[in-house]
Design the sequence.
């Protein structure tokens, strides 16, 4: 079963994403900040990371993305960035950080499901 | 008053923050869309199922009627007669869609029986009399109302008001209304079309033959109604013969 790591500082958002993916067969894990995300990524080796860009603390989503993509041990999991509306520069920054796709929050759950399944076919 | 006194727990109020509330709205929007698409897909499946059965009915019909327009006429005539009887437009509409499949069971009757001119031997009669049962089997026990109705019509359209019909010898109002209506329009329409073994009867003769069967083969109330509205039924039939509607007019 594919493993997905949800990284967002909002517990409600994590829960809503979990709900959205409920009917797909995924193992879902959650992290509430960048540091936890990196720890879990190493421990769990997720196939995909859903990553909020704007998180409090030293590590925002872009930093986490760069670290995950740069770590040869993790074997390059897919990364989908979740960015706030109107942060157009996030998109370019996300690509530079190595993200595979991005969605603007609030995102359409159907689109999230589509983007995730595209990750599997692309891989 | 029977009841149990209890102290209700104070309700826990907890609200989403703006980001989560906005996300929730998107989820609900998508839910609505999925719901619509799902309903549309179900309708599409029912339509495809209906069309397949209708094409099967057409295949059965075209063995002894080159055009297959008979089954289209039966649908529209059954609808017109149901309306004349004061049945609801919904039921009349459903009958239009269901009635054309009444003879689909003929697909299980060999040509040497189906196309035989003159009267049947008892063995042939027995084979022929199976077609309502075969039809009901083909239409199956569907969960969809329309196909339940089609199956009911197929099974009961050769029952007779006096109980001498087949396959079950039902009598009077034990025969479903749908079957009683279709029996009458089927009889009238069959009489007024050319068959390989005889030319068509005139409308006057056919109506006279119908009148004679009130209380015998057919529900006398429906026969009386059909005779009262004969002009309307004949107009419906003639219009279909002039401009045979597409098969799709019989699919929801």
Sequence:
């Amino acid at each position: 079963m594919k493993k997905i790591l949800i990284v967002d500082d909002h517990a409600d958002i994590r829960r809503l994403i979990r709900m959205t993916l409920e009917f797909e067969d995924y193992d879902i894990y959650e992290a509430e900040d960048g540091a936890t995300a990196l720890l879990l990524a190493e421990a769990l080796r997720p196939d995909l990371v859903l990553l909020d860009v704007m998180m409090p603390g030293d590590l925002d989503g872009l930093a986490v993305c760069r670290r995950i993509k740069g770590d040869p041990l993790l074997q390059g999991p897919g990364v989908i960035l979740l960015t706030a509306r109107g942060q157009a520069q996030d998109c370019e920054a996300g690509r530079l950080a190595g993200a595979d796709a991005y969605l603007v929050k609030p995102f359409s759950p159907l689109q999230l499901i589509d983007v995730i399944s595209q990750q599997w076919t692309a891989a | 008053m029977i009841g149990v006194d209890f102290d209700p727990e104070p309700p826990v109020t907890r609200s989403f923050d703006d980001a989560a509330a906005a996300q929730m709205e998107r989820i609900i929007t998508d839910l609505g869309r999925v719901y619509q698409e799902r309903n549309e897909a179900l309708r599409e499946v029912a339509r495809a199922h209906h069309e397949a059965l209708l094409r099967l009915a057409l295949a059965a019909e075209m063995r002894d009627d080159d055009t297959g327009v008979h089954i289209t006429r039966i649908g529209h005539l059954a609808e017109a007669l149901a309306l004349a009887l004061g049945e609801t437009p919904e039921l009349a509409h459903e009958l239009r869609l269901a009635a054309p499949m009444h003879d689909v069971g003929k697909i299980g009757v060999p040509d040497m029986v189906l196309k035989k001119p003159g009267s049947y031997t008892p063995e042939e009669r027995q084979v022929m009399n199976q077609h309502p049962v075969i039809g009901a089997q083909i239409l199956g026990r569907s969960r969809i109302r329309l196909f339940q109705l089609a199956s009911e019509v197929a099974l009961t359209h050769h029952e007779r008001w006096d109980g001498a019909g087949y396959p079950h010898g039902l009598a009077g109002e034990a025969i479903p209304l749908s079957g009683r209506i279709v029996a009458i329009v089927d009889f009238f329409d069959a009489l007024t079309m050319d068959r390989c073994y005889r030319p068509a009867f005139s409308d006057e003769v056919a109506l006279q033959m119908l009148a004679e069967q009130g209380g015998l083969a057919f529900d006398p109330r429906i026969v009386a109604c059909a005779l009262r509205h004969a002009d309307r039924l004949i107009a419906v039939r003639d219009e279909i013969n002039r401009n045979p509607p597409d098969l799709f007019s019989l699919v929801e």
User: Anything to note?
Assistant: Chain A touches chain B at residues 10, 12-13, 16, 19-20, 105-110 (CB under 8 Å). The longest strand of chain A covers residues 78-84. The mean pLDDT of chain A is 89.
